[in-house]
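Raw record, unedited: UDP-N-acetylmuramoyl-tripeptide--D-alanyl-D-alanine ligase
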Amino acid sequence: MKPTYLQDLLPYMKGKVIVGETNPLIRHVIKIPKYSLLKDHTLYFHNKGTLSLKASNHFKQLTIITSKPDLLLDAGRNVTIVFVKNVKTAYWRFVDFYRNTLKIPFVAITGTCGKTTTKEMISWIFSQKFNVYKTIRNENDPSRHLDYLLGIKQSDDLAVMETAVAVPGHLKRAYQYFKPHVGILTSIGIDHLNGFPDLDSYINEKLSIFSLIDSKGTVIVNGDDDSVRKIDLKKMKKKIVTFGMNDNADFKIAKIMYEQNKMKFQLIYARDSYIFEVPGLGKHNVYNATAAIAAAYQLGMSIESAGKRLASFPLLPRHVEIVRGINGSTLIDDTWSSNPTSIESSLDVLSNVAKGKKKIAVFGDIKYLGDKTSEIHTLVGDIVAKEEIDYLITIGKEAELIGLQAIKKGMDSKKILHCQDPTKAYKFLSDTADEDSIILIKTSMFQSYKKFVNSLRVK
């Protein structure tokens, strides 16, 4: 955090110092009442509950924003207490003030699939010449937003933020913190239905990106997405940039080619044609790369430079990761997350990599589906049945529905194995897999079966 003096904040928060030093230095901000989070020169937004400050007397200085000073007990000389009428309002005024002190471009990425990869690709494109600040891995929970905002250094040139949507209002909250200049919507599939009343509510939350982005900002969207195609983008009073394979896309993906551990694709923009390569397999990887190139272009980098930089993009672990597997087989480790959209993508990779080899797909339960759990697992069974898979292995109570539906759709029951845990699956694979086998492992992040997957990988 940039060191800030309290008197610079008070006019915005509309607060009044009632106890202690009138202009302390602020180096750290928290809104959660955890003693372990306190440091010297911390600003704490006290929203409710009695708080004893006796144990905090050894800190050099603490500043507390409160609307109920009578609930703050044992305040020492090191404590400054600021009274405000509404703590929540004061907090958001502070966030607004601090965000406005950061004079660098912000990019925010949301979508059912591809958020983390697109974020990393944009960061990689710019990291060669600029200092890029980015969210960590897929740690995109709203509880991290404040820390991410305060973590930006004066030396940073660009901030690239991954924003989650797990309940209504998540995207709005992220935009309150980050106020991105460029917002990206990678795709809208099926996920996090446990946090929404229905699928339409989830879709609408993703689509709220169009209303949340500032009128001077840019929204980059997947023009091939079914939900996006239903919207008249021409009516939007802001800059909209589309990418995809359809003829109307601004960044048009003209050709996609599978090569050895990488994808080659033709990209057309304003009648100019480019051929780029990106490490990693799958059409979805080309979409992610195109979204990243489009974002880089909006931020002033040439398409040629952005695309060429991606040729050296380091692959992310557990994202359609191709490795040597048990008994000389080839293993596709796609255990980062699981939903119908990413399952279709991974099955497409399996089909293109197999080239006549024996195809084995292993699926675990899909999480975050709420009362749609059975329906979505059945839908995945329909998807799997359309693929020419030699063996299907399901692990977990809900995943069994995938196999049952695949049987209903015509898949040979003798080619399907259901397991309650990975032990049985490992035994089957150790007996069945050989050099002529391609094994896809697809599970949710919270069911990644790390030990199981590692036992199948050959180092």
